[in-house]
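Service request form, structural biology core

Requester: graduate student, group of Dr. S.
Request type: structure prediction, single chain
Budget code: on file
Notes: please return the result as structure tokens.

Sequence provided:
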Amino acid sequence: MKAILEFNLPEDEYEFESANQGHRLRLATMALDQWLRNEVKYEEHDEKVFDAYDECRKQIREALEDVGLSMQMIELP
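Core staff response, request fulfilled:
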């Protein structure tokens, strides 16, 4: 299967850059979620810090769901 995206540059520069650089956002989101997970799982913090990290992970997932994505969709195969 092949997919071809076409853009009329320079008019569609924003859309082009969004499509072209989306993998960077994917990697950054995964790295942030993994860091939060590791902080909760492996580091020693007081309960408020753990709760804040858990809330951040929840907010990341909700923000993804709001735009039709999920963590499973952004994880690398």
